[in-house]
Design brief:
alpha/beta, Glutathione_S-Trfase, 8 helices, 5-stranded mixed beta sheet, Glutaredoxin, Glutathione S-transferase Yfyf (Class Pi), Chain A, domain 2, 5 strands
């Protein structure tokens, strides 16, 4: 669907069309899955793009919501909505009038969605944190941070990550999507943590979790995903 795009500069906010929802989108972030969903549903929306500053969200995002995070979604009535899972639920409930993403088992869908956001995502955040600490620590102290990171990987993060991926692969089974014959809320939410794991090469999905790797490939072949990438301003998770 056609979008009205703008940068985060205040003067350019005026180009946004009134009466449309607005996605405040940060490059190289989980907001990419919101772009994918909006494109899947052919929603007309405004798109405000923000660029990371020294790896972090710019202060302009805090003008939309005090947490200053992305994605931030403003509905057509001006209500500000945060958190990917809430935004995805709102968009599906509001715009999926043809029930394209209907679920057969709501409890299972909610379980997988919550697992992606509340269990797997924090594990990936922990790994990123210690990776960045080690990367930005000068020698000789980097030797200590590297040893600490390796210990955390061995005792916690890699084991928990693999356990989570085994769970996801078992839930996927022989289906093309977590939602069954077509994508659903759980598919949208699983993308970001799995993309992080794959892009940062923490685990070789193709070797260890081939069905998950195939699922990820199917996501990338969808026209709506490709349109979302074109409208976004970068999704290179290995550059964080």
């Amino acid at each position: 669907m056609a979008t009205t795009a703008a940068t985060a500069d205040a003067e350019q906010q005026a180009v946004l069309k009134p009466g449309l929802p607005t996605l405040h989108h940060l490059n190289h972030s989980q907001s990419q899955r919101i772009l994918w969903l909006l494109e899947e549903l052919d929603v007309e929306y405004n798109h405000v793009a923000y660029t990371r500053v020294q790896g972090r969200a710019p202060p302009e995002l805090a003008k939309i919501h005090p947490l200053g995070k992305s994605p931030t979604f403003v509905n057509k009535d001006g209500r500000v909505i945060i958190e990917s899972s809430v935004i995805i639920s709102y968009i599906i409930d509001t715009y999926d009038t043809s029930h394209k993403f209907a679920v057969a088992d709501q409890i299972r869908s909610d379980e997988i969605s919550a697992f992606a956001s509340a269990t797997l995502a924090p594990i990936t955040s922990t790994e990123i944190l210690f990776e960045l600490i080690h990367k930005n620590t000068p020698w000789p102290f980097s030797y200590l941070t590297g040893a600490l990171r390796s210990k955390i990987q061995n005792l916690f993060s890699m084991g928990e990550m693999r356990k989570g991926l085994r769970y996801l692969q078992s839930e996927l089974g022989d289906e093309e999507w977590f939602n069954g014959g077509h994508p659903g809320k759980s598919d949208f939410l699983v993308t970001f943590p799995v993309d992080l794991i794959a892009e940062r090469r923490w685990i070789d999905l193709g070797k260890e979790f081939p069905r998950l790797a195939a699922w990820r490939g199917r996501v990338r072949e969808r026209p709506a995903w490709k349109r979302g990438l074109e409208k976004g301003n970068g999704y290179e998770l290995d550059k964080l």
